[in-house]
Amino acid sequence: MAAARGSVFASGFPPGIPRHSYPAPRARRLALISSTQRLFAVSTAEQLPSAPTSVPGPTPTTEGELGQNRRHWKDREPNGSAAASPFMEDEGSEVEGKKRLEDFFDLAKDLIRSAGGLPRWFSPLECASRINNSPLLLYLPGIDGTGAGLASQHKKLGKIFDVWCLHIPVMDRTPFTDLVKLIEKTVKSESHNSPNRPIYLVGESLGACLALAVAARNPDLDLILILSNPATSFNASQVQSLIPLLEIMPDQVQLTLPYLLSLMRGDPLNTLRATSEKALPPQEMVAELSKDLLNMPSFISVLADILPKGTFLWKLQMLKSASAYTNSRLHAVKAQTLLLISERDQLLPSQAEASRLYRALPGCEIRRYEENGHFLFLQEDGNGIDLVTTIKGATFYRRGKSRDYISDYLPPTHSEFIKLYESNKWFSDMTAPVMLSTLEDGTIVRGLAGIPSEGPVLLVGYHMLLGLEIISLMAQFLIERNIHVRGIAHPMLFPKYKEDGSTLSPFFYDAFRIMGAVPVSGTNLFKLLSRKSHVLLYPGGVREALHRKGEEYKLFWPEQAEFVRMAARFGAKIVPFGTVGEDDIGQVVLDYEDLMKIPYYRDQIMRNTEGNVKLRTTATGEVANQDMHLPGIMPKIPGRFYYLFGKPIDTEGRKQELKDREKSHELYLEVKSEVERCIAYLQDKREGDPYRSIFSRLVYQTVNGSSSDIPTFEL
């Protein structure tokens, strides 16, 4: 039914892991995982809370914080009742760079206070409160071996994972292959205990080699690898030259430690830029930068305890054997893999290595970070990586054998939404969207008061050119009504990244997936409506969003009533809506027909189309044309976007009636007619908008303030 439509953009441990006493004097504290028990902040799984469904996010204090024509963030619905927040809990999600490094050294100091012993696991107490059926995440450290690399992210990771970190004591000399076997025992044991639960292996440099080696030795286990700058490229790196230098260097001389610390801190210019962007008074800015310099000696002191000369030399030699061992077994790795690659890695040639691993590993995805150095999770310049956000964007989170786009979905945190909103705010400022909705009595009002608060609600409308209307629509529903709209999207939003440049940057797709886009299918629509969600649906799909010249505001809906009976099954309210404004920002000058006449573009269109899932294979006519292309568009001086949401159509109690094909088709045509009426209304009324032009809006904001609501036509 729904398979043809969608938005274009739109508990014990295994033997072999020794038990040791473990000091934990600070408040953050850890729980040692031994061969017989694990200690958490709570003692049993039954005490852990279920997934948080409604946690209020921070509330902006002024309209200016969310830009022009934006209403105050609502903690309550219009009727005054408490409104559940659509956001995932935001606690611990935003960590400043300097806090990351401080957290790392703070935890590392506690870890190395132990006199020694063998490698062992610990579980941070911050990770004790997680959602049900959380998968296991094993963190495998890099050359430091402390297991503290994710210290600043423990709380957020602990909401969705059962987090265990591997600690390798400073004086331990366990060979690489024995470390692989130790991890392998844990993986096999936990896989046996929870056969339907995946196990995540998150590894940095040396830890990435450990993860790949374990995966190669266990191709039949359900493993998900997340690898940061793997040390599989060690033999091609300049770090090897440090080995003979360290062998002859006196123990008292620690020339490498300041260099390593500088790599952990990241580019100092980026640090300065991040500090200046806070717009602090000069005195506070100087104090913050001075504090950073004053911390350097204490950080070097801890680093000297973590990596004394003998340990550092041992780790470098281990990297050499780890690289050789892992590279010889890459062909056996079958696990789903996400590579996190720094393009300014000064320790390893990670950029080139990523391309090699991408070709060698069958289930591999890549995220490249242009501004980051080797220590991705410790970056101190405002470009630090949020691992949970990255996993969510790459759709790498699942709790079962296969990913369920509905039950495995994790809503954005408030800070994630704000970050995405701010990155697209320029577009909302440029188009100054006007949102109108229709109340139960038929009155049209400005704002979204006419949208039902309780789901299931099915928003059905016209797909503008390139789906440009989605950006403002999704944001405004969250800002004004605290409603998280889930978009039914074309499979092209879920592609496997290709190194040949045939796909856009993966971060482009990540934004839509973080905001809840799901691949179009009848099953996904069924699940969303059954969960009483607000669902965004475009029956015109690709054909409508990639329309030809002169086809603005023309609906390309299929003949059959695809969504009506599904909506009636759950008693959903159908809200027809129209959008207008694409012809005010650009004009199609090269459409599908023109591009197909040019051999280069014709071949490109055919490749892109063949690489996507085929939809509407049984449909006929124009709506069946799903060829993927990017029309040539000539920009215009920006006008304004307008949205009108019609009166909700209630299907409650009409399930039996709408089983009749004729009755369901009548309702389908009613919805389509209402969408066309909304478009016609907006086209007519915008002619009387004195602020349709961007120039008149700029004048208005100059006089009244940049955050003021811009008026529109009279209703």
From TrEMBL:
<dbReference type="Pfam" id="PF12146">
    <property type="entry name" value="Hydrolase_4"/>
</dbReference>
<keyword id="KW-0012">Acyltransferase</keyword>
<dbReference type="InterPro" id="IPR007130">
    <property type="entry name" value="DAGAT"/>
</dbReference>
<feature type="region of interest" description="Disordered">
    <location>
        <begin position="1"/>
        <end position="20"/>
    </location>
</feature>
<dbReference type="GO" id="GO:0019432">
    <property type="term" value="P:triglyceride biosynthetic process"/>
</dbReference>
<dbReference type="InterPro" id="IPR022742">
    <property type="entry name" value="Hydrolase_4"/>
</dbReference>
<dbReference type="InterPro" id="IPR029058">
    <property type="entry name" value="AB_hydrolase_fold"/>
</dbReference>
<keyword id="KW-0808">Transferase</keyword>
<dbReference type="GO" id="GO:0004144">
    <property type="term" value="F:diacylglycerol O-acyltransferase activity"/>
</dbReference>
<feature type="region of interest" description="Disordered">
    <location>
        <begin position="46"/>
        <end position="93"/>
    </location>
</feature>
<feature type="domain" description="Serine aminopeptidase S33">
    <location>
        <begin position="176"/>
        <end position="378"/>
    </location>
</feature>
<dbReference type="Pfam" id="PF03982">
    <property type="entry name" value="DAGAT"/>
</dbReference>
<protein>
    <submittedName>
        <fullName>Acyltransferase-like protein At3g26840, chloroplastic isoform X1</fullName>
    </submittedName>
</protein>
<comment type="similarity">
    <text>Belongs to the diacylglycerol acyltransferase family.</text>
</comment>
<dbReference type="GO" id="GO:0016020">
    <property type="term" value="C:membrane"/>
</dbReference>
